[in-house]
Predict the structure of RICIN domain-containing protein.
Amino acid sequence: MKRLTDNRQPITGNWQLTTDNSQPITGNWQLTTGNCTTSFAHPSLLMENLYRLLPRFGGAVLLLAATLSGCSKDDSPVAPDPVVDPVVVPTPVAGVGAAGIAGLNWADPRDNFVDDALVLSGLAAGDTYATVQTKTETIINGFQSRTNANTVRLPINPTTVLGSSWAAYTGAIDKTLSKGMKVILACWEGNSSRNGLVDDNTQFFLMWQTVIAKYGSNANVYFEVFNEPHGYTQANLAALYADWLSRYPAVPRGRVLLDGTGYAQDIKGIGADSRFNGCLLSIHIYDFFYNNPTNTAASWEKAFADNLGSYGSRAVLTEYGAFLTTGVDFNSAIEGDVKKSYLLGITNFCRQQGIASVYWPGLRTGDSYSLLQFDGRNTSISNASGLGRVQFAWGAAVTGGTDTFYPTANYRLINRNSGLVADVNSAATTAGANIIQWYQNGATNQQWKVQATSGGYYKLLNRNSNLALDVNGGSPMPAANIVQSVDNGSNSQQWQFTASTDGYYKVTNRGSSQVLDVTGSSTTAGANLVQSAAASGNNQQWLVWQQ
């Protein structure tokens, strides 16, 4: 075996380089320093190992490395490889709601409605299992390090599962699972039909039989029977689901997702069917589902609640999304913007009510909703404020979706203990009217402008009356009522917001140093708001959300 020397003579011939443990670095190499030519199969591999050998062989390795880095086979410049994202050991969010799912959709660039085999964004038709695994490793590293997601929703269809591409496609599933992620496998219909019906029942159940045989025993794999079944009546959809459950009784119901009726818009009917007790319920909501979409966050929260009914604890919002590549700042004042109000409202509701969610899409090439972009090597975030809202929905430890108070925006104060909001009693416009807690109804007497004064304090002006949130008589005493008064700049009308890690605020009066509270920790609508000495009770904690 020839060994490298440090005599600065030309290095020629066939070499076998070994590491410290005498393992060979294989390949036929012809290296000459004099005429700057090289012959080798994998120069990047050789360079990598030369630098590893530096401590052992010293200057000779430096000479060889310099020769290789400065020369090429045809003596022409070689562009450097792009820098690859460093692998970061992620700490996924715990998630909220059903199964703690906090996820992203990974989609085919064609939108998953395809008649042939699915090819996920970043992969290529014809990729082998090993190639898919390698590419998936990079993409899932990006999902985890950029977003802290713990779940990926992947499409399947009969052509993919029953065809020659299935073995390779499982590389994406297997690698995602190996990274500690949950996986939701959801069935899409083909593009040629797009009628909201299973294309071929025989093929449909053969597909699921194959999938269940492979992944049914894996506790981190969830099965979404059929995506957006808008072609079925509720009765026929229920029959399809009952048939599916009867065929695969060994699958735990807590790992089965049943889409609601329509475009998975309403889960109440399926949720109420006792045959599906224990199953998770998949729901979708987009602003374009509505002919005249609302433009307040509170109205989107109500629309979502109406479609959930009493089944929120079993619900997984498997699709929602908004434009993320147009530069919208989702932390700014809504000011009538439908997209802003939609994303704030939906993520608010998921956070407050503990609804599991999966954003559409986490990655889909060419989709303006895509949270992530992928260039073949690296992932990047399309919109940081959009990511913040997605993470907020997952229950991530960020402030209550309100990092900045915008003077033109209208806010609600929602009590953590009661879920009720700060309201001017009877919508009065007169000074001295009591502030109470009441059910959210969108009225202007429940909306407040939050405007900075000085020293980190703010005044709160009621939208209906334009009067200021105040302590009655400017009292420093505990249990003094909270009222509305003519804005006069006094300390009793100034409030400081102190955020907790779980999204709520303590609201402290500048004049008394006491905090905004509900009398007697009441959860009853109509109870007065008062000031009290600061304590740890939920009755002293408030969400401050845009209307």
In short: The chain has three domains: 1-81, 108-394, 411-546. The domain at 411-546 is CATH 2.80.10.50 (Trefoil (Acidic Fibroblast Growth Factor, subunit A)). Residues 1-85 have pLDDT under 50 and may be disordered. The longest strand covers residues 356-363.
